[in-house]
Amino acid sequence: VTDGAEPDDEDAWVAGAVARFGPHPFLVGPGDDCAALRLEGADALVVTTDVVVDGVHFVLRECGPEAAGRKALLVNLSDLAAAGAVPLGFEVGVVLPRGTPREAFDRLVDGMASAATRWSCPCAGGDVNVADAPLTIAVTAFGRPGPMGVVTRAGARAGDVLSVTGPLGGSLAGRHLDFVPRVREALALARRGVPHAMMDLSDGLSRDLPRLARRSGVGAEVAGDLVPVHADAARAPPPGRTPLEHALHDGEDFELLVAHAPLADATRRALEAEGVVLHEVGRVTEAARGIRLVVGGAAEPLAPRGFDHVAGRGRGRQP
Ligand SMILES: [Mg+2]
């Protein structure tokens, strides 16, 4: 450090980030080799990891660093919600493109810290690197089992209703960057013992539903006339999809897909009083019937057209 200037090294950047996240509730928090989270009353730790990359999950020059940092945490919160878990905290690894200014890093942290505060999921630590690479943010989030323990994709049974927690489609119009992870909804459902199986919709209903069906050893029938279509579907890429096709195949809705017994009226009313609405989209069937879409009384196989990260097909965006 010369001329009395503030140091502007890695430690300074990280110290700024840690300060932005504020006080932490952990036994050991950021600043040591490991963090330590208390687990009173929990017999399991729920863990999930998601990586978001510039050019795949967001376009940095369009959305800015706050939105990127926020989304990196939100997608993990959505996975915790899918497990019916209560967020405990998270760790984050960031690869900054070489030449990233301090101000951009601080804005990334800002977006992440705002979401951390809103969803009561404090930062337990992390790591920052610089490379000739697109901005990459890897978050590992931790949770404690909720009122039903750990809810999984297995457990759906023939005759169950399939519901989603909100309208689908068109998230690329902007919603995919700033959505409400359904943590509160998941816990409200779990408190009433509703979910037999649950997952969050990240890659599109047509791609995610078969994953739940496979894990549960069941088939499923989607009622095209029931699927709630988001208003964004009319103005979102890719072009040429009908609103229903957007709802079936677009990714990153981040609503919950829930398999459950038909709801008693009292349960439905109690959920609605908490602002939780389940929109029925279909039924669970025997495995042999496969995954089908029924529109106007005619059934056809529902082929996955959501995003496949490995094949690179679907709705991902290249810069
Ligand atoms: Mg998921």
Which features does this protein show?
single chain; alpha+beta; 11 strands; 28% helix; disordered C terminus; binds magnesium ion
Please, could you describe this protein's structure?
It contains seven helices and eleven strands. It is of the alpha+beta class. A seven-stranded mixed sheet has the order 6-8-5-9-7-10-11, sandwiched between helices. Strands 1-4-2-3 form a four-stranded mixed sheet, covered by helices on one side. α3 links the parallel β2 and β3. α2 runs parallel beside α3 and α2 packs parallel to α4. The radius of gyration is 21 Å and the shape is globular. Bound molecules: magnesium ion. The site of magnesium ion has 5 residues, from α2 and β6.
Kindly summarize this structure in a few lines.
The chain has seven helices and eleven strands. The protein has about 325 residues and is α+β, with helices and mostly antiparallel strands.
Gross geometry: globular
Oligomer: single chain
Bound molecules: magnesium ion
In whole angstroms, the N-to-C terminal distance is 38 Å
- By DSSP, the count of extended strands is 11
Instruction: Please identify the structural class as seen in this structure.
Output: alpha+beta
How much of the polypeptide forms β-strand, as a percent range? 15-25%
**What characterizes the major β-sheet?**
7 strands, mixed
Low-confidence stretches: 314-319
Helix and strand succession? HEHEHEEEHEHEHEHEEE
State the strand order across the main sheet.
Answer: 6-8-5-9-7-10-11
Give the proportion of residues in helices: 25-40%
Mean pLDDT: 93
Helix segment tally: 7
